[in-house]
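Lab meeting, item 3. Inverse folding demo.
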């Protein structure tokens, strides 16, 4: 009979293998959430011990890559993994988490210009993110640290339009009035009453104090050039500024010659400034000096 032929048995085995593989994939998808819950409970070592087997079995799975980034010991290598997730899986459910991790890392290193760009991406791109409030607050912190409060106001107004229930007055930035919010055209009485009550409640809430980022002494700078020609100094400043660094140009006289000094600013410790200097050397081939220059 046909059912006993070798071809039939091969087809039967193939179908059975396909069913098993499908079930395994479903179970694995559930296990990612299990591993994430273990990490939240502080059981990182358990996840680390299972990770090699997961990578071997599911080398291209986005969930495995995200787990690896979460439990990686080396911070910089973790950031590279998060960047890989964003580059290769920009619409995955882990994309907003990866963006937040990168932003927080840059913020912790004092790279506020770069950090602010990542923080503002979260409310702009990920409507259902769990990081909405924290990403906005840290974006504001970053802009305050670099003296760009006007940029913070612009984005707060933008977020206020996108998220009507967001209290844009609660992030430590003054000078944003209700007239900056979009006008309401067709509103029934019940909706208007609710908004008035919400506004009164928001007025009772204390404003968040100026973030600590602007209060920490940051006397260390990284000097990357001294030019007799101001245009050369300005070009280097623009180049580094576009790369996300906070850059200043100062002047001093040496041997009767006026020099325009380019410095990447400012850092709380010498070690932090040194790391940035080494990064600039690697990325742009710039020689550097780490200096203590209190404001």
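The presenter then showed the designed sequence:
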């Amino acid at each position: 009979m046909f059912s006993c032929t070798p071809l039939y048995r091969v087809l039967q085995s193939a179908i059975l293998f396909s069913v098993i593989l499908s079930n395994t994939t479903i179970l694995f998808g559930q296990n990612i959430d299990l591993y994430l819950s273990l990490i939240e409970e502080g059981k990182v070592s358990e996840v680390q011990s299972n990770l090699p087997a997961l990578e071997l079995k599911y080398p291209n799975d986005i969930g495995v890559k995200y787990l690896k980034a979460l439990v990686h010991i080396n911070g910089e290598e973790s950031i590279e993994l998060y960047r890989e997730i964003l580059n290769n899986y920009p619409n995955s459910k882990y994309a907003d988490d990866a963006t937040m991790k990168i932003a927080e890392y840059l913020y912790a290193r004092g790279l506020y210009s770069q950090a602010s760009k990542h923080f503002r991406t979260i409310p702009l791109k990920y409507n259902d993110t769990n990081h909405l409030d924290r990403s906005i607050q840290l974006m504001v912190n970053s802009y305050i640290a670099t003296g760009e409060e006007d940029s913070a106001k612009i984005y707060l107004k933008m977020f206020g339009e996108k998220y009507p229930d967001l209290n844009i007055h609660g992030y430590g930035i003054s000078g944003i009035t209700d007239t900056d919010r979009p006008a309401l055209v067709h509103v029934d009485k019940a909706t208007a009453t609710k908004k008035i009550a919400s506004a009164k409640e928001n007025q009772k809430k204390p404003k968040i104090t100026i973030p600590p980022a602007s209060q920490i002494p940051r006397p260390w700078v990284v000097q990357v050039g001294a030019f007799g020609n101001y245009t050369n100094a300005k070009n280097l400043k623009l180049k580094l500024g576009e790369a996300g660094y906070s850059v200043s140009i100062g002047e001093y006289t040496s041997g009767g010659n006026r020099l325009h000094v380019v410095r990447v600013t400012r850092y709380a410790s010498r070690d932090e400034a040194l790391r940035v200097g080494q990064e600039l050397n690697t990325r742009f081939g710039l020689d550097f000096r780490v200096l203590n220059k209190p404001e």
